[in-house]
């Protein structure tokens, strides 16, 4: 095969490289049973020079993320069933390390041949069928990996960037993140400090102040983070370990392709796996629901009615629309994994995921279904049963 054209599709965040589409053709005219695809995707990482005497946490996070992504495509994607479509790796270069200026290059199959609709290009909310397709993809992905924890932990798990740097382990090291996503508490201490110091934020006192518990001086933000964080050692599980799976880590419409949906159904495929790692699947859903799901699908009751969120102190219990989406996810997850995920447990984990996601947004900046998220978290924090469970856990 040879590339006959290279079209740059977009630069990577903060100018760390680019994504291009290669048009390819075969050098041989021999017929084959499996014709080569017409296009491939080239992801090329070219990190900018480090500013100052030492790299920032953000810079280290990005470098590790590209190693993680290549590990995922080369080692884990071949294990996935066809029911969970993901781009396949055609070729890859040696990963970069903390000092090398060497590029990291990954060539992937082009998802748009089978999934031609880029959700981000619609410039509108996801349709109902697209939301369902995204949810089904996540349930299949999470369900598949929930029974393969030992395989995921067989490679060294990547720690928070500053920990890797301090331990001297920031080198070529295959594996996914210990904690999937890029917003988890251990890697967002600067944002948490910003929230602690923000006297104008209504969330500072609620999330950051130590609870009146003589046995613990931790805040709600710290307790929730501890509950949903994967155990560092498989030999020392935590209460949520039975539900641990592999997270996509950056679930949003910008990372989603779908099929056309002239009827009531569509299929979907996610891409961009820089922050793939261990965690509770509902943590992926928290970002999806906040950033990509239409508000009407979350707060609708099924009878056409929906509450009005009034002011900054509104509290909102789970509505039928939100419940239906979570139940759809739960049923598919159980079918794929072969494991029960009782509604009571899922709802507790879901509440934690929403509180944790709000903690990040409160320190970083709000976007998406902000009123819904804040109203839901106010209701959750007022739920004494959930609060008691959280403190016991």
Polypeptide structure, described:
The protein is an alpha+beta fold and 393 residues long. Helices cover 38% and strands 13% of the residues. The chain is built from 13 helices and ten strands. Strand 1 and strand 2 form a beta hairpin. The N and C termini lie far apart (56 Å).
**CATH T-level topology:** Aminoglycoside 3'-phosphotransferase, Chain: A, domain 2
Gyration radius, rounded: 22 Å
Task: State the helical fraction.
Answer: 25-40%
The dominant shape is globular
User: What is the CATH C-level name?
Assistant: Alpha Beta
Low-confidence stretches: none
Specify the number of helices: 13
Structural class: alpha+beta
The second-level CATH architecture is: Alpha-Beta Complex
In round numbers, the mean pLDDT is 89
Give the CA-CA distance, first to last residue: 56 Å
Quick structural summary:
The protein is an alpha+beta fold and 393 residues long.
